[in-house]
Every structure is written in structure tokens, then in C-alpha cells.
Prior knowledge:
The chain has three domains: 21-211 and 407-542, SGNH hydrolase (Rossmann fold), CATH 3.40.50; 253-395, Sandwich (Jelly Rolls), CATH 2.60.120; 546-638, no CATH class. The chain is α+β, with helices and mostly antiparallel strands.
Amino acid sequence: MLRLLSIFILSLLSTAVLAQVKLPRLISDNMVLQRDTKLTIWGWAAVGEKVTIRFKDKTYSATTRADSTWSVTLPASKAGGPYDMEINGSNHLIIKNIVIGDVWVCSGQSNMELPMERVKEKYPTVIAQSANSAIRQFNVATTYDFEKARKDYESGSWQMVDPQTILQFTAVGFFFAKTLYEKYQVPIGLIKASVGGSPAEAWLTEDALKAFPKHFETAQKYKHPGFIDSIRNRDRQIRDNWYQSIWQQDKGLHDTKPWFDPSLNTTDWKTMPVPGFWDEHGLKGLNGVVWFRKDIDVPASMTGKPAKLLLGRIVDQDSVFVNGRFAGTIGYQYPPRRYELPAGMLQPGKNTIVVRVINNSGRGGFITDKPYKLTVGEETIDLKGDWQFALGTTAPPLPSATFFQYMPTGLYKAMVSPMLPFRIKGVIWYQGESNAGRAVEYRTLFPAVINTWRQHWHEGNFPFLFVQLANYMETKDQPGESDWAMAREAQLKALSLPNTGMAVITDIGEWNDIHPLNKEDVGKRLALWAEKQAYGDQQIVYSGPLYQSMSVQGGKIIVQFTSTGSGLMAKGGKELKYFAIAGADKKFVWANAAIEGNKVIVWSDQVPQPVAVRYAWADNPEGANLYNKENLPASPFRTDNW
């Protein structure tokens, strides 16, 4: 009887808990609500339960539907706050510190996801002065779902920006918000829903994928949990075996002395310059473990204090030891290596730095044109130059793991669907690197993302502002074909959709880093488009020159542009660069180019009968210098469709 009574009481308690009013995570303390539009506040409760909301001295109510959902529509409000919101049903909830302003979704892949922490060395003053209760972010954790569209997030909360929280803010989004707030003094809410490496198809609905049969077919496979589990288990086993093998075979770990021991005899080690790749120094085509070692002389003035060890970027993984003590590790190639050394790790005189590098595929080594130095306060020791190195072990390339978050529709169902009832001002989007190898498909795939999101948000053609791909990879001596140029063209074509905008950043990328550090100009250029498309500023120059048309006259091609602002210019006062011209044979050569008014005249003595022009048509058109006088760069373009 006691057991039955206990079960009965527990069932009553669980029923009471289930009956309580529950809110989605987006509707929580510190949230930003969209101004000047009707708002939906929604949640869950027991079927038939009455829910009341008290907000800004008015009361609203709803009755919970048969599916346990309820929703209340609030009238449009002007920007302001802070406010509290009371919600009553079988329980009592208070949401505190609400402001009303503009809500922007920040989506795409890693360059939108990239947090301020990754660029903190570049923007220390901005971070120190960042406190602003009017700029807030809700971070959506990376997750995916192929079976159903989710109704809520498993985690997440609204954070006001300050010198501590800013480190987790999207860097592009923060500079975008900062720029808009400084001009309009309206609170800005950022919903960060970005996933590094994600292709566009991961952000589409299942219905939208039907226009892309291969992606739709893939999505059907991933609906089955057993299929996912089998792949996950296979990948885990392959990865575990690979790392276990190199651990067991690495001579640097199992020698008489470990190779991070400062007293190790390294007279038989070879040397190579760092930064650099080891395939240029006798280890061509090698994957596995290579150890690097450098002895430096540290003055007494740099000891007894915390230090920073900057080791650029390393492909792929590294573990660092200073004077035999472990200093840190990073497990993949993209983050900058910035190791904080505690006081006491450095000693006067000789100090030994050892780096164990694991390379699992491709070229291994140290990325050039990055900082390699040891700093204590204002004192610095340059670490570039010859390092000793020795081979720990070789290994076959590690097969690529399956990234489930990259599969079609998974991110849309898990990361976009839960926010669809939440009213927004618009979307800023930085994505395309993962689709650059499929640029022709991207011409329809990317517009499908824009159209699908607008369709399902039920807010009409809200502003959708995106970033064109930055300049990246090594420059080429001659004109040629380029996947990244084709992807930029696909993005340019998306401007034909209403209320879109494109920030051109082919002048602020880094040839050796797919994640360029300059996120301030990216945010500011997106904000210019927002001022035009979202805030109705008809006077602002929001874009650099965009190709409009061409004509052939007397062996020269005359190119006309829109968005010329107060006039075209060659930045730096130099001759225009990166124009190429071709005749009917389709062979492009570098061309002469000159500005005449708001036109550019292009010609070459090698092409007496020209038919086509290309500008900045390369992976990395470094040095392309056509701008308007508002200092905004022209978008790369071509006049042909070859």
C-alpha cells in the first residue's frame, strides 16, 4: 500500500510539473524584442489551461490548445526598456530586463560563428570599452536534427555585452550591432546561429531540398538514427585506431627520454626554417608526428612574469612544452596558437621550446605570415628562423570523419525552426566557402536559402544581407579560372532578389587564412547595407561599384557600373589592376584599364578585337584596386558566361 501510495503521489507531482507553463529559451531574461511590429509570445502548458501575460501595464490571455501550445499576440511597441514581463498559469514566471529594439539573426559558417575571443589581440581597446546593455546576444549551440523540426533549443540565454561576455559574441555581428547602435541608439539583439564549415544545403527545409535531388536523397538517409549511429561508430573506431597507433609508435614519447626533455641530446636532429612546411625539408608526402625544438636565451627581465607564446597557426594539431613543462595544446589547424605561460615557467638564460605536431592529411607544418614570438610586457623574442626537427612516426592519412551537421536540412530543423515565431529585423549571413567548389549549384542553392527562410518566417521580404567571399589562397601570375570567383559571382547574382545586400571584402582577406582577422570592416560594410535596406537611408553610399553593362568601341571595352557613389577611383592613386581581357578565343590576358568619369575603359594591344572583360577574377585578387570615393571596393565580375 505504501508503494502504491508513493507511485500515486509521484504521478500527481509529475502531472503538476508537466502542467506548468513553460517558455522557449529565446523568451527569457535580457531578451530583445523586435520593435514596430506585432509580437508573438508562446509556450506550453496543460491542455485547456489559461495563460495570462502582463507587459507594459496591459494584460493579455490565451487558452492552451490541444497540442499543449499557447500563444499571445502583443501590439507593436517603440524601442525602449528595460521592462519586465509576468506570465501566469498554474505557475508564475517573471522575465526581467527586456528591451525593445531590432533583432538580427547572424548565420552562416565559421566566419560568422568566429567569436571576438579569436580576434582579441587585434581589438583590445574595443573589448575593454565594450560594455553596453543595449547590445545583446543569444547563442544557439551547434546541433542538428534530420527527423523533425524542433520547437525549442536545449540551451542558450541572452547576454548583454561587456568585456567578459563579448569574447563569445560573433565578431562580425558585434561590429555590425555596434555600428548600428552608434548611429540609431536603438537596442540590438543578435541571435547567433552559425556553424563552422556548414554548406548552404544544411540550412534548407526538407521541402526546399526537393529542387536539389541529390541533397534531398541524402537527407532521407539521415532520417534513420541507425544509419547515423553506424557511421558515427565507424568513424570513431577509425579515429581511435589512428591516434592509438601514432601514440604507440611515436619515438618522441617512448624513447629513453621523452623528446620534450630539455636535457635530450639532439645533435642528430635536422633543422628547417619556421614558419614553413616539412615537405620542403625531406619529409615530402608525410603524415604522422614531427617534433620541433628551439633553444632561446631569455633575459632575466622577462622571467618571473606571465608570458605569451605565439606560434602562428599549425597544421594540424600541436602540443607545446616549455622547459619540459606542458604549456598547452590545440586540436585542429584553424585557431591561432596563443599560449599563456604562467610566471615561473621561463628561466634566465637558456630555455627550450618543444612543439609536437600531428599532421593527419595534406601538408604539415607552420603557416607563414603569422606571428611567431615570445612576449613579456613590451619585451619580445622572435621565434622565426631555424628550428631542429625529428620524425616521431609516420602514418597513413586519417580518413575524413563525417560531419553530421553538414548534411542537408539538419541545421535548419534544429537551429532555425525554434526561432521562427520570434520576430526579427533581418538576417546577416557569412557563408559560401564550403560551397565554393560547387559554384554553379550555389547560384540556385543560396537564393533558395533566402527565399525559404522568408517563406517560413512569415515576415515578407525582410532584409537578408550577406558577405561575399574574401580573397584567399596564393595569388596567381596570370589570369585563369577560379572556384572562389565563381562563388562570388553566384553571390553577386543573389542581389537580384528583393531587399538583399552584399558586403564586398576582397580587400581584407588573408591569403593564408580562411578566417581573416579583420571582422570590423565586415560588420561595418554589412551595416551600410542595413542602413539602406532596413533603415531606409536613401542618401547613404552603401556599396562599392557593381558591374552594370559593357560595350565595345574601337578595340576597347567600356564598362559601366552602378553604386559609383561620388565617383570611381583607383585606390592608392595607382593604375587600375586585375582587369583581364579576351577575344573570341577566350584567352584572357592582363589589360590596361583607366577610369573615365563613372566608366572604366579596358584594352590590350594583345587583343585587338576584344569581346569580354574580367575584374578581380581569382581566388585571391590581392591588389585589385577599383573603388568608389567612399572607399568601398568594387565587386569582382566578368562580362562573359564561358
